[in-house]
Write a structure and sequence with these properties.
heterodimer; A: 1009 residues; alpha/beta; Dimethylsulfoxide Reductase, domain 2; Barwin-like endoglucanases; seven-stranded mixed beta sheet; six-stranded mixed β-barrel; 26 helices; 21% strand; disordered N terminus; disordered C terminus; B: 458 residues; mainly alpha; Formate dehydrogenase/DMSO reductase fold; 15 helices
């Protein structure tokens, strides 16, 4: 390049002649300031300014470099799966993380995992969105000011050193920590202080179970409940299929003994005794509705009945209701393989239940205390004591990790006032929450998909969590923080691996060398190890409460009882900032985006309130004084008519962001309530009864405010029976939709052919399916209605979140929904769930009516929607008898660029104005075809699993090739329970159902409720 | 002849008009400045049209979500308005073509306006299928045109596609028929024109009409042929519109009675609208002597007849629902009468079945105020009929879990008002620029009157 030219003539891209005589383009700046004239200076200055401005317009892209050297085993466009452990709650389900092009996009259940066995709940699946949450703290902060870790460590370690020297009290408050590595780190860290203690609590406490076992077995243990070994199950207010301790594990176990395809048929019998309508109650064979203040009496009655059968003298006399006697009889018939679980957080009640299980010989069989569960270890008494310490100013440093006491434990008092007494509050947290807002030092933790971690959810099951993406923020795990503050900073991998090589390797079951053991565990996601020995004493009968249960409350028959419960979709509210979970309708109420005061129809009639009326509830508080809450009414059949049930987990900080979620247009209404948050915070209404958090309270006043609050219910009619007078006599119930069969009839009909009729002739030419013909069978008896499949489908298929207003306008976008029907029957409320998705009809009514052929039939029986051909007449949706087509009413903006990382690149993001629906996860079918073609073999049965089937904890969904007579689906289609919904329309759906089974085998043939 | 009682019919045109009077009377509104009443009406219509335009623009820019539809009720105001406006159009074709073939001379006073009404109503109707699409900018995909997308074609099984053909054919034939009928009158206007522009425009549009016997013969022949072509359309268009519903599998839609039911309903609603418009027009335009009480009465009788058919259909539907033993049918009809939209159903029955019964009484039939009120009720009733058919069948279908409700949004109401704005804006412009009465034909009718009276007086 020549620099001989006059500098003043230099400009970018000016052709100059170089000495060789060829023309070339010069794009250099003049050398040195000498000779830069005014004009060229201005030119250059202007150009630089423009250049700066232009480069500023672009988002800084880091490491956006295509692979020059292809990493081994990485094929662009092909997913890589990593085994890990779910961090959504403490249950520790095994997950497989799907990674596409370097980013995790979906969590699925790990089918080999000993606890979860392939299922994954809605919350677990939804967690992956939180990885891409742009509101997540990315940097440490002190007093709200962003700092570096060096600064934070410097200041904090100085503080801690000061405390150490003065002997100040250091308290670490966490949720249950199932990670052995973290526990050991905590021990090491706290050992450095003279007065240090680790306090744990669980946001939804089951502390009383552990305390009861302390009394009965001499150890604070949580038994591992083995539903897979229990032929008779009694649940006393324990929503074990929905929210209690480890629902996925329990659902898998529960379903293991409800296999109706086996010969002879084996099906467990489940009685649920509860006040509100829980998901577990909805699935029970028999549901006994009692008021919450009667739970203890029920436990005592059960114990008394069983004691009588065993011949043990009880120190008290109780009259046992016939219903409870029946239950005891059923239990006794199955002693040794029965199970009573109790969710009441009251030690006396739990001791009685333990006693029942002891009498039945269930310990060691269906309740494992030798190899207990570590999923919940919270101690209500300890946390209360800690709060008292804080209030009296005895705590010098409080480190809060992973929990949100300012929200969860608002029942204890005002945490902002309390924490102002603590000179040093450190919060190690993944999210901004009520507690981090009060903390002096906020140490952001990485998402569980970004970190090394481990867990031992149950004795003998050790699992590893491995990072699947580079950390998106400057975050540090608890172990990393503690190691730094102990002056020996190490990375999370080093800490976890070192601990495993040392402590866990010693407990291994197979004799691999350490590195191979570690590699294998990381590959599998878990390892079976030897459980550490627990020194248990045999059952102490002396632990039984001496007298009959004292009427602990002065509850009069007219009082309303408040029942606070965790909701299936949100539980204690840790994930309230997750829009997927907010939009997932509650399986029972089918309401999303709100909590509400559930009233039985009788109670609502008595109080003269309608659905949506805002009610002001007043309860008296432990600390004296009263607490109030204002909530819209929801009328809930099947619950006790003296209770008002309110869900916890709402009114969370961080839900303000949903004010403008969903389409914003002229008549749009916000997704948040009058408080600016989603729902109302109900935890302040909790109270301590004795040393334990009590989830019921007496309502002193319930007043109608006169205001109304619209609830986003996506099902407005709750019954299969049409309104009175609108059907010919005897045909009021639409049996064509959900069909039932009694257990007795099923036993008789075993081996008989299915109840489907031969297809009537059709006007259209028949389709030919020469290769595969895909179909699905859904076992309605197995389905618990948990909603895991709904979320799996949403994540897999890039289904947008539409917000509360759109839900209220019945415009939810979920491709798979779970219809829920109530049936009032002899005073009982029966609940049936029916997953409903596109039925991929052979004679699809949608296909004939589309004017532009945007929905067509494939040669493999799929009803395909061609998005880019669709003009959006909605005729197909009108003509769909299953109403499973979803229309893009708006452009559902994916404004958050970071959240868009979650989109599945295999599935088109649909634009406004087109119809969409379930595709049977056609992208998975195609992937399996490619895979099998590459290996030159036919597709194996079960190889294609749609997202809904994969995650189902109850294994209720089976997908497969109906053309293959040996496939699992073909076998199920020969079951006497097989039927197709609305078969007489002759649309010939490819989705069929297995009938709900009614176990009417009641000892006295009567029903109670 | 002596045995046959001679019926003296009153003349069709009153006031013993000369042919010149007729030309002058009909042309007058076009040749003078518009009245204040016209300006007021035009202003109001234009405002309504603009409101509709704003609503439609917002809807197309934002999404169909600005309407109150949901996952279960995929059609609401949009298709209700579509069927309503198509139905309105039918009276025009019936009057101009069918009554022409049956030599009903009284039609001459109203046929021009009725045909114009048809064209404007079909225009209003055509808007709705267009804007009800999620992606209206791709609406041309419903036409089977050669393309480069492989063998991608339209779906000839879809009744919606048949609709496209039926409506476009109907609109074309109606427009041509109307225009051909206008040619002699345009020539009259040309000859009376005082300004150059008017002479030029009318001259061009009258295609060199010279009034010779040969021209008249050709004209009569073409008109007869077009009338013959248009007649089956009266039946076919609304039959095909009804197929949108009848060929579906939705209870309440899937009914074989729909084609005749829809045709009768369309004629019924069309005459309702013709009555409404004519009663206003004769007053405003000073045409009382041309559109006489006799015309009004004749149309009232058609309203009674078609209203009776509609009423009978309602009864038949109910009977079949009960008699068929199909619980789905049973449910959908009882749900119409007793369910959440019962109010709409009973408005429909009240307006369409009960109100027209008053027209049996001559006193009511000859009272303009009463007829006007009833014609409005018929319009309302027929709008609700379509609303009931579409919305009540959809909102509660097979699976009770998917049942929903439907409430229109402000956008849908504004769009509906806008369609009336378009209709009346067009109609008022028509009144200003085109002879509202077919001058040439009325002259023929006057001649016929004279001929009749002369024969009778012999």
């Amino acid at each position: 390049m020549s620099q001989k030219e006059e500098p003043s003539k230099m400009s970018h891209s000016e052709p100059v002649r170089n000495p060789e005589g060829t023309e070339t383009v010069v794009a250099t700046f003049p050398v040195g300031p000498a000779g830069v004239g005014r004009r060229s200076f201005l030119k250059l200055a202007g150009f630089t300014l423009a250049g700066t401005a232009v480069s500023g317009c672009r988002r800084p892209v880091e490491k956006a470099i295509p692979f020059l050297v292809q990493p081994e085993a990485t094929v662009p466009g092909r997913a890589i799966w990593y085994a890990s452990t779910c961090g959504g709650c403490n249950a520790g389900c095994g997950v497989l993380v799907k990674n596409r092009d370097g980013r995790p996009i979906k969590l699925e259940g790990n089918p080999d995992h000993p606890l979860s066995q392939g299922g994954l709940c809605a919350i677990g699946q939804a967690c992956i969105l939180e990885l891409y949450d742009s509101h997540r703290p990315a940097d440490p902060s002190i007093g709200g000011q962003k700092v570096t870790w060096t600064e934070l460590d410097g200041k904090l370690m100085e503080r801690l050193e000061h405390i150490r020297q003065n002997g100040g009290a250091v308290r670490l408050l966490t949720g249950t920590i199932t990670s052995p590595t973290s526990r050991s780190m905590i021990q090491q860290f706290l050992a450095g202080f003279a007065d240090a203690r680790h306090v744990t609590y669980d946001a939804v406490s089951c502390s009383a179970i552990l305390d009861a076992h302390q009394r009965t077995h001499g150890q604070r243990v949580l038994p591992r409940f083995r539903f897979d070994r229990a032929d008779v199950i009694v649940g006393l207010d324990a929503d074990f299929l929905g929210t209690w301790i480890s629902p996925v594990e329990y659902t898998a176990g529960y379903r293991a003994l409800r296999r109706l395809e086996s010969d002879p048929i084996r099906r467990s019998y489940h009685v649920q005794i509860e006040a509100r309508m829980s998901l577990t109650g909805a699935n029970a064979d028999r549901r006994i509705v009692v008021a919450p203040d009667e739970y203890t009496r029920v436990a005592v009655s059960l114990a008394a009945s069983l004691a009588e059968k065993v011949g043990v003298e009880l120190p008290l006399r109780v009259t046992v209701e016939p219903a409870i006697q029946d239950v005891a009889e059923r239990l006794w018939q199955a002693h040794g393989h029965s199970l009573i679980v109790c969710g009441v957080n009251d030690v006396d009640t739990q001791v009685w239940i333990s006693f029942c299980n002891h009498l039945l010989g269930n310990y060691g069989r269906t309740l494992d205390v030798e190899q207990p569960s570590y999923q919940m270890a919270g101690d209500d008494r300890a946390v209360k004591a800690l709060f008292d310490e804080i209030l009296t100013g005895q705590v010098a440093a409080l480190i809060v990790r992973g929990v949100n006491p300012a929200y969860d434990l608002a029942a204890l008092g005002d945490w902002s006032k309390a924490l102002s007494r603590v000179p040093c509050v450190v919060n190690v947290t993944e999210t901004h929450n009520e507690t981090s807002a009060l903390a002096h030092y906020v140490c952001p933790e990485p998402h569980f998909l970004e970190r090394w971690d481990d867990s031992e959810p149950a004795a003998g099951v050790a699992a590893v969590t491995q990072p699947v993406i580079q950390r998106l923020g400057r975050t540090r795990t608890l172990a990393e923080c503690l190691s730094a503050w102990m002056g020996r900073p190490r990375s999370d991998r080093e800490i976890v691996q070192a601990f495993w090589m040392d402590a866990i390797y010693a407990r291994r079951q197979s004799g691999d060398e350490p590195q191979r053991f570690w590699d294998q565990t990381v590959h599998d996601g878990y390892a079976n190890i030897h459980a550490s020995a627990t020194a248990l004493s045999p059952f102490q009968t002396a632990a039984l409460p001496a007298g009959p249960p004292a009427p602990s409350e002065t509850v009069s028959a007219n009082d309303l009882q408040l029942v606070l419960y965790p909701k299936v979709t949100l539980r204690e509210g840790t994930h309230a900032h997750n829009p997927w979970l907010q939009e997932l309708p509650d399986p029972i109420s089918r309401i999303a985006w709100d909590n509400y005061a559930s009233l039985a129809p009788a109670a609502a009639a008595r109080m003269g309130v309608r659905e949506g009326d805002v009610l002001k509830l007043t309860v008296s508080h432990t600390e004296g004084g009263e607490r109030e809450i204002e909530l819209p009414v929801h009328i809930q059949p099947g619950q006790h008519d003296r209770i008002v049930a309110v869900a916890l987990g709402y009114g969370r900080m961080g839900t303000e962001r949903f004010a403008e979620i969903g389409p914003q247009w002229l008549e749009a209404r916000p997704s948040v309530g009058p408080t600016g948050r989603v729902g109302v915070h109900a935890a302040p209404l909790l109270r301590y009864r004795g040393d334990h958090l009590c989830y019921t309270n007496t309502i002193t006043r319930a007043v109608k405010t006169g205001r109304r609050h619209a609830l986003a219910a996506i099902q407005s009619y709750d019954s299969l029976t049409v309104p009175a007078g609108m059907a010919p006599h005897g045909q009021e119930k639409r049996h064509e939709i959900v069909r039932e069969i009694s257990l007795a009839a099923l036993t008789d009909s075993a081996g008989r052919s299915p109840a489907t009729r031969p297809a009537p002739p059709s006007l259209w030419p028949e389709h030919r399916y020469d290769g595969h013909r895909w179909g699905m069978v859904i076992d309605l008896d197995a389905c618990t209605g948990c909603g895991g499949c709904v979320l799996a489908c949403q994540i897999e298929n890039n289904i947008p979140v539409v917000g509360k207003d759109e839900m209220a306008r019945s415009r939810e976008m979920h491709w798979l929904r779970i219809d829920r029907y109530f049936a009032e029957h002899e005073g009982r409320t029966d609940v049936t769930f029916q997953p409903m998705l596109c039925h991929h009809c052979e004679n699809a009514p949608c296909e004939t009516v589309c004017p532009v052929l945007a929905t067509v039939h494939s040669t493999e029986g799929l009803n395909q929607q061609v998005y880019n051909r669709c003009v959006g007449t909605r005729y197909c949706a009108n003509n769909c008898p299953y109403k499973m087509r979803r229309f893009n009413w708006f452009d559902y903006a994916h404004q958050d660029a970071l959240e868009n990382m979650i989109l599945n690149p295999d599935v088109t993001v649909r634009s406004r104005g087109v119809m969409e629906k379930c595709s049977f996860c056609v992208q998975r079918i195609e992937a399996a075809k490619i895979e099998s073609r590459g290996e030159n073999r036919p597709i194996r049965d079960g190889e294609v699993q749609p997202a809904c089937q994969q995650s189902c904890p109850a294994r209720a969904i089976v997908f497969g090739d109906m053309n293959d007579p040996d496939s699992k689906i073909s076998r199920l289609m020969r079951s006497p329970r097989y039927y197709r919904a609305l078969e007489e329309l002759n649309v010939r759906p490819a989705v069929g159902y297995l009938m709900v089974v009614n176990d009417e085998n009641d000892p006295k043939g009567t029903h109670h409720g | 002849m002596a045995d046959v009682p001679i019926v003296f019919r009153p003349p069709l045109i009153e006031g013993n008009k000369s042919l010149a009077d007729i030309t002058r009377d009909v042309s007058r509104p076009m040749e003078r400045r518009p009245t204040a009443m016209w300006w007021t009406a035009f202003g109001a219509s234009l405002a309504a049209l603009l409101l509709g335009l704003v609503a439609v623009t917002y809807q197309i820019a934002t999404g169909i979500g600005t309407w109150g539809l949901n996952r279960t009720v995929g059609w609401g105001f949009d298709i209700t308005n579509f069927v309503f406006w198509v139905g309105i159009g039918h009276a025009g074709t019936l009057i101009s073509a069918v009554l022409f073939l049956f030599r009903q001379h009284w039609r001459t006073s109203v046929n021009r306006a009725a045909e114009a009404m048809t064209i404007f109503a079909v225009m209003c109707a055509a808007i709705f299928p267009l804007i009800h699409m999620g992606r209206p900018w791709l609406a041309f995909w419903v036409f089977p045109y050669p393309n480069y997308r492989g063998s991608l074609w339209v779906n000839f099984r879809s009744p919606l596609l048949w609709d496209v053909f039926a409506i476009s054919t109907y609109f074309t034939i109606s427009l041509v028929f109307w225009y051909v009928g206008l040619i002699p009158d345009l020539a009259t206007l040309r000859d009376r024109a005082t300004t150059k522009v008017r002479r030029l425009v009318c001259g061009l549009l009258s295609l060199g009409w010279n009034g010779s016997a040969r021209t008249w013969v050709r004209y009569e022949l073409v008109y007869l042929l077009l009338a013959g072509l248009a007649t089956p359309l009266v039946i076919s268009v609304h039959s095909i519109v009804s197929f949108d519903f009848a060929t579906s599998i939705l209870p309440g839609w899937h009914t074989t009675i729909f084609p005749p039911y829809f045709v009768a309903g369309a004629v019924f609603s069309g005459f309702g609208m013709v009555l409404t418009l004519m009663i206003i027009a004769r007053k405003v335009m000073g045409l009382e002597e041309y559109i006489t009480i006799r015309h009004i009465e004749a149309m009232c009788k058609i309203v009674i007849a078609t209203g009776g058919i509609v009423g009978l259909t309602y009864a038949t539907e109910f009977f079949i629902a009960l008699y068929s033993g199909s619980k789905w049918e049973y449910f959908v009809f009882l749900n119409r009468a007793m369910g959440p939209f019962a109010w709409a159903y009973w408005i429909m029955v009240g307006c369409n079945v009960l109100a027209p019964q008053l027209l049996w009484f001559k006193r009511i039939r000859t009272s303009l105020a009463a007829v006007f009120a009833i014609s409005i009720l018929v319009n309302i009733g027929m709008w609700f009929e379509r609303f009931v058919i579409i919305v009540t069948s959809l909102h509660r279908d097979y699976l009770p879990a998917s049942w929903t409700h439907y409430v229109p949004t402000s956008m849908e109401i504004a769009t509906f008002i806008g369609s009336f704005g378009l209709f009346f804006t067009c109609f008022l412009l028509f009144c200003r620029f085109v002879p509202v009465i077919a001058i040439a034909e009325v002259k023929g009718a006057v001649a016929h009157d004279r001929h009749q009276s002369e024969t009778h007086h012999e």
